[in-house]
Structures are given as C-alpha cells and as structure tokens.
Amino acid sequence: MHARYQQEIALPSQSQCGERFKLMVNSGLAVELENQHAQYTDGVGLYRTEFPFIIRSRFPTEQEQIELYAKVLSSYPQKTVVMRTLDVGGDKALPYFSIIEENPFLGWRGIRLTLDHPEIFLVQIRAMVKANVGQDNLHILLPMVSDLAEVDEAIRLIRQACFEVGDELGIAVPRPKVGVMIEVPSVLYLLPELAARVDFCSVGTNDLTQYLLAVDRNNARVANLYDALHPAVLRALHQLGQQAQALQFPISICGELGGEPAGVLLLAAMGFRRFSMNSSNLARIKWLLRRVELSELALLLPEVLCCHSPKQVRLQVQRFLEHKQ
Ligand code: PEP
Ligand code: MG
C-alpha cells in the first residue's frame, strides 16, 4: 500500500471542509487478517456469512456459527457489525446444497432461499443473536430483497429467534437492528415502505449494477457492458440518496463502488456518508476524502449526471482527480 495513504490511516475520516464520513470494512473469510484495520474503522459494514458455509462440506451447526460470529463481533467492540444473512444461489454455490437453474441470478438466491428454508434462517439468526449477548453490536442485513412480504416474513422469523434465545437463556433478548440490501431495482421504488419496516439499508452496487443493466457481473463476454459508472446507475443512486435523506432513512454503500476513488467521490457528492469497503481500499479512500471540499463535489455532480456514457463520466472524474492525487 502507498506509504502516503498509510500515513493518514489513523486520522479522522473527514473532508477538507469538516464533513465526517463513516468508513467501514467488508469482511468474509479471513477476519483475523482483515481486523488489522479494526481500530481505524467505524466497524464492519458487511460481513458476508456465506463464506464459512461455502468452505464446509455441510451446513455449520448452530454452535459452530455462534463461535464464528462471536469472534467477529468481539473483534469490533462498541462498533457496529452488519452481518448479512446467508446469500447463496446465483454465483455462490454450496457444495452440499445443489441448485440447478437456467437463470440462477434471477432464481433462488439470498432471502428467497432462506425464507423457503426457515430452519436454515432460524439457526443462523439464533446463532447471531446468541453471539451478540454481552456484545450488543450486531446489525442484521437481508440480501436480495425484492418485495415487502419478504421483509415482513424475515422480521417475523427474527423476532421468533430472539424470543427462543431469550427463553432458552432466561434473559430478555431485544431484536437487533435490521436492514435491507438495496440491490434489486424493485426496492428503489419501495423506500418509504422499507423505511417504515426496518432500521437501515445498504446499497449493494455490484448486484444493483448487474440488475439495472441486465448484465451478468461474471460473464467475460459482456464485461465491457458491466459498469457501475453507467449514467443510469449513477442517476438511480442519486435519486436513492435524495429519497433516503428525505425519509431520514440511514443508508450506506457496501458494493465495490464505494471503495473506488471515482465511485466514492460521486457518492459523497450525492450525499452518501457511510461506505463499507474491502480493507485494502480503506487507507486510499480515507486519504482521498480528506482532500475534497463538498462545494467542489457539488460542482462536479451535475456535470457527471448529464453524461451520456461511462467513458464520459470517467473523463470528468479523472479531470477532477488529477488535481488531488
Ligand atoms: C453487492 O451486490 O454489491 C454486494 C455488496 O453483495 P455481493 O457482492 O456479496 O453480492
Ligand atoms: Mg449482492
């Protein structure tokens, strides 16, 4: 990592003009390696629970999950840890749970699968909630939500899991904060209803780009069409940010776009203030945000929002960045 970025890792995540940002890390497998940054972050914005499931040859037991989640939660004491419920299907296959479909990205994945198998969902939530006893930093995030009935059913099951754990341990177990991933385009149009049901939302720009553009994120043949800086994606994100602000609905970005210089600048210009990224991007993004003024971003944004292509967007942002790096 560039030494000049590393030098500022311990300094506040704050723009030149004093605006504060929350910078969090995305985590999955190697928590031990990734938490070298724990002290310099505002927590974990996305813990992808599917990885520990994928590397096994069977579903992890409740006890195995408790131990795993407790390790993650205790690595970030007093800081938020957002744990996403199992997001398999699509490109993420479990070797011991075969799913054969013609259109896996439009099929049985994320919350769709776990709501059809509440026993899998309940064990996972019970494990999270038990691991959270005495820690109190757990937030639960629901992946691949496309309609409100899924949210209602997931919340009902989360309440049930809290009740069961409370009953078993003989203590009161309050429901942790619950959030929804914004990654299927339908939920862009359901924000007020989501805000009335859950505590926060987190934008998965990787899948949101894939579904808005109808481009498989892993297909090399159409890779030139997969671009989160596509003007349509940026306009959707801009409207989303505005609406979340108007609703006072806490929103963060956990897709790759928030860990890229051009992406984070544009998102900051749109009003987003919380970003979760791979820990390898953290120092660079903090360094960059510490060099911007909101007033100059406010001038950049309208120019970018009227661009006609990702290429034009890149040129505009590149011009801006040349004065920074
Ligand atoms: C996303 O879709 O942007 C996201 C953060 O989730 P994943 O990459 O795990 O699908
Ligand atoms: Mg996703």
UniProtKB/TrEMBL annotation:
Family according to the record: Belongs to the PEP-utilizing enzyme family.
An example Gene Ontology CC term for this record: cytoplasm
Highest rank taxon of the organism: Bacteria
Cellular compartment(s): Cytoplasm
Residues making up the signal peptide according to the UniProt record: none
Entry keyword set: Cytoplasm, Kinase, Magnesium, Metal-binding, Phosphotransferase system, Sugar transport, Transferase, Transport
Chief location bin: cytoplasm
Record carries keyword Kinase: yes
GO molecular function term, any single one: metal ion binding
Keyword RNA-binding: no
Protein name: phosphoenolpyruvate--protein phosphotransferase
Shown chain mapped onto the complete sequence: 421 to 745 of 752
A single GO BP: phosphoenolpyruvate-dependent sugar phosphotransferase system
Species name: Alishewanella jeotgali KCTC 22429
